[in-house]
Amino acid sequence: MKAPDRPIVFRDRIDAACQLARRLQAYRGRNPLVLAIPRGAVPMARSLAEALQGDLDVVLVRKLGAPFQSELAIGSVDESGWVYLAPHAAAAGAGADREYIAAEKRRQMDVIRQRRAQYTPVRPPLDPAGRIVIVVDDGLATGATMVAALHGLRQRHPARLVCAVPVSSPEALDMVRPLADEVLCLQAPADFRAVGQFYRDFAQVEDDEVVALLKP
After folding, report:
1. How many CB atoms lie within 10 A of CB 204?
2. What are phi and psi of 210, to 5 degrees?
3. Which ranges carry the Phosphoribosyltransferase domain (predicted)?
4. Residue 136 belongs to what H/E stretch?
5. So what CATH class is 63-118?
């Protein structure tokens, strides 16, 4: 019996971005628009945009946290206000009713508005229409925020929509595949527990670093 492949453990997010860039060389020089899901993916997207000679921006989406377990995503919301609810949302703890979801959506939309004003204060978001768009995250656990990002971008008519992540849970990968023209995931281990287990350095990315990275 063949031994299972060992999971890739990335040195840090830039190492992961470099490995993604090698697999995305077909888009180099074709002016791709590389969009990061903040905050962790922004350093990765900056590295990818430079490697592929493309433009950098952010796609603003937020997860909707479960009652009493804010880190557990029961869905997500995009910048337009479109909401995705995960199949497990109804069972994600007492209180995840319509009123709770509406209030959680309002809270996360406030964060999205604040981040847009902070991250790109002097320009509108770059237009994805007619362009190769590569959406980057540092990993997918539930996949909820990537679902919202891909859905929102599809409505804006990119020429090609690519999802690029270093690691994903198998369940999240299955969920996002139908939403993109291409999904590049370097690994989706069966024993996935958390994105951070696949990085030696998984330090939090702060807002001031995001602002600096998004400057022209």
Report:
1. 7
2. -60, -50
3. 22-201
4. strand 132-136
5. alpha beta
- Amino acid at the residue 100: Y
Give yes or no for a contact between 154 and 139, defined as CB atoms under 8 angstroms apart.
no
Structure confidence by residue, pLDDT tens digits, 99-141: 999 999 999 999 999 999 999 998 899 999 999 999 999 999 9
Residue 129, both tokens: 């229409």
List, for residues 17-51, the tens digit of each pLDDT value: 999 999 999 999 999 999 999 999 999 999 999 99
Q: Is the pTM of this model over 0.90?
A: yes
62 pairs with which residues across the strands?
77
Distance CA 104, CA 33 (A): 30
Distance, CA of 168 to CA of 117 (rounded, Å)? 30
Is the pLDDT reported for residue 94 higher than 60?
Answer: no
Write out the two tokens for 127.
């237009």
In 3-state terms the chain splits into helix, strand, coil percentages (rounded to 5) of 40, 20, 40
Backbone angles phi, psi at 155, to 5 degrees: -70, -15
Which residue stretches of 140-206 are H helix? Answer: 144-154, 170-176
Question: What are the extents of the domains in the chain?
Answer: 13-60+125-214, 63-118
**What's the rounded Cα separation, in Å, for the pair 87 and 175?**
11
DSSP letter at 10 equals B
Pick the CATH number of 13-60+125-214 from 3.40.50.2020, 3.40.630.10, 3.50.50.60, 3.30.930.10: 3.40.50.2020
